[in-house]
UniProtKB/TrEMBL annotation:
It comes from Cyprinus carpio (Common carp). It holds the Pfam family Lectin_C. This is C-type lectin domain-containing protein. It comes from the Eukaryota. InterPro entries: C-type_lectin-like, C-type_lectin-like/link_sf, CTDL_fold.
Length: 300
């Protein structure tokens, strides 16, 4: 219990918006999982699968592996798909996938469609839907693309387009993608097949990293350990404490920590948050600052 009169000159409710810095670490999970399972685990427990894009990332990944004496390969957050266009098997140079697409969890979804929001996704090629054909006319987008209002599966739609036009539509930039999305909206249709497909002769590979941060690939269905990325935030707060007489540091710290934990709890941060005190050179937490009082006699 605090015996002396103490005033905390700080607005505790607002401290979490004060000076802060963002940090991150990479964590190795040794329990083998497929790439998709690893991604789901990291997103639930941490932030996401780790990516390696800088020297700092490489150092943190090696640190995570060395911490548990890990000497093998593990999943990271890169993947490679063999996706292309039906027309002349053209490689993809422009893409507009929906979040979490293409769907790694279902390797049978090998054909792509566009929706009226201009986003792409994959689905079973046997499903029925409207489709866009590409013609041999390039004067305007209206001439280049033809909307077919008959529902066919992807392969039958491809045959129709190759028989009557050139092929299923190939999208090469934002202008073409937006045009097709608007056309879908105007026709009242939500999805439409385009010429996007996954090469069944290729492979669906996800990326691994060794302890020396050398990249490799493997089937996404292979169970492997994996690296997760965890973001952490450090926020520094300075308190001013006014006390008349001796200051009981432990009592003040206890009162502040109690209030801080309440604030963290209100912000759903109580599980992953901790409080550390900065220690002064003299071993104390709080540094005394003397104030000069005016001792002159006041005039009436």
């Amino acid at each position: 219990m605090i015996q002396n009169k103490i005033q905390l000159v700080v607005f505790l409710a607002g401290i979490l918006s004060k000076a802060s810095c963002d940090l991150y670490r990479i964590v190795l999970i040794k329990e083998p999982k497929t790439w998709t399972e690893a991604q789901s685990y990291c997103r639930e427990k941490y932030m996401d699968l780790a990516t390696v894009q800088s020297d700092e990332d490489r150092a943190k990944l090696k640190e995570a592996a060395n911490a548990v004496n890990f000497q093998s390969v593990a999943w990271i957050g890169f993947y490679r798909f063999v996706w292309g266009w039906s027309y002349q098997n053209t490689p993809i140079s422009y893409e507009k996938w929906k979040p979490l697409e293409p769907d790694l969890s279902n390797t049978n979804e090998a054909c792509g469609f566009v929706n009226q929001l201009g986003k792409w996704a994959d689905r079973l090629c046997t499903e029925l839907d409207y489709f866009f054909c590409q013609t041999d006319r390039q004067d305007t987008l209206q001439d280049k693309f033809k909307y077919i209002g008959t529902k066919l599966n992807w392969h039958d739609a491809q045959i129709h387009c190759r028989t009557h036009y050139v092929d299923l539509a190939t999208i090469t930039d934002d202008t073409e993608n937006t045009f097709l999305a608007n056309l879908l909206f105007n026709t009242g249709s939500y999805n439409s097949w385009i010429g996007l497909y996954k090469n069944q002769l290729g492979s669906e590979d996800c990326v691994t990293a060794s302890t020396e941060v050398l990249m490799g690939d493997d089937s996404c269905l292979t169970p492997l350990p994996f690296y997760c990325r965890e973001n952490r935030k450090i926020q520094r707060v300075r308190f001013t404490v006014k006390s008349h007489g001796h200051l009981d540091e432990s009592a003040v710290m206890e009162a502040i920590e109690k209030k801080m934990k309440q604030i963290l709890s209100d912000q759903d941060m109580e599980i992953t948050s901790s409080i550390k005190w900065g220690v002064q050179p003299d071993g104390k937490i709080f540094q005394q600052q003397k104030t000069q009082e005016n001792t002159e006699n006041k005039r009436c």
